[in-house]
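fold description:
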Amino acid sequence: MYGIAQWYIHSEQSKPFTYGVSFIPDYAQSLGVDPQQTMDALLNIGVKQFRLVSYWSDGEPTAGQYNFSQLDWEFAKAEAAHAKITLTLGLRQPRWPECHQPDWTTSEPTALWQAQLELYMKAVIQRYQHSPALQSYQLENEYFLKGFGTCTDFSRQRLISEYNLVKQTDPSHPIIVGRSNNALGFPTGQPQPDEFSISVYKRVWDAGVSHRYLEYPFPAWFYGFLGGVQKIFMHKDMVLGELQAEAWPPNGKSITETSLAEQNKSLDAKRLKDRFQYGKATGMRTIDLWGAEYWYYRQQVLHDPSLMNVAQQEFK
């Protein structure tokens, strides 16, 4: 495993390296900070790559009536700053409850809401496919992960149908599909995207057994091994699409219900700096950090700029 990891890490070194962030306006708002000011602050510290969401529940709150105002200003800011965007598509997208389905579809049979979802996806793609900021799409998010979120439909055929829709609507941009876990093995079956992504969480609250903070023991080269095995057998690149860079509150609490001292037990400035280095040590050349809205929240609401300062050093 270690040998494959080292081969992968060294074979990728000549490729361009990019740090980016996931950015979700709804989450920034839930933390009590202005979403547009948050994105401006991230651009100001040097962020040039964003993974954005296109929640169906936000974009089509009423059947047949699209609202793209939020994505419009995000794309406008990215274009003005010459930043790049990975746009997530589909029903399952980052952040709880994972599956962002409008209320007006929840009583419909799958066949009906799937057709309506694909109409919405097509409208999103057609609106932004010619933006100079658009770099790639991520289709769904950890699609087959059944242990987290409120999702109930895990049909492979739906994923294939959505993949074919995206490829037919915009064949010029690559599609990323996220692995459903970070354990051994590699994705099989259809669809076979242009790239795969993986999520990496390092320090979380174990609510099930120990009721304490749990540090996952995987060394960075373990993910280099996963990337290497995938490269050997599937000839596909892998990106680190979600690297934990925010605190994980205990006992099911939200960030805003958790004291700064408690937040620091799972993420402080030192751990954030280590997290940047950990990501780079995996050998993957595209890394999107998870929780950038939280850095701004700590600065503006908790008057603690330490995370933003670390991030600025790394991005600059």
Notes: The two ends are 34 Å apart (CA to CA). Residues 2-315 form a domain with the TIM Barrel fold (CATH 3.20.20.80). The chain has a mean pLDDT of 96. DSSP finds twelve helices and ten strands in the chain.
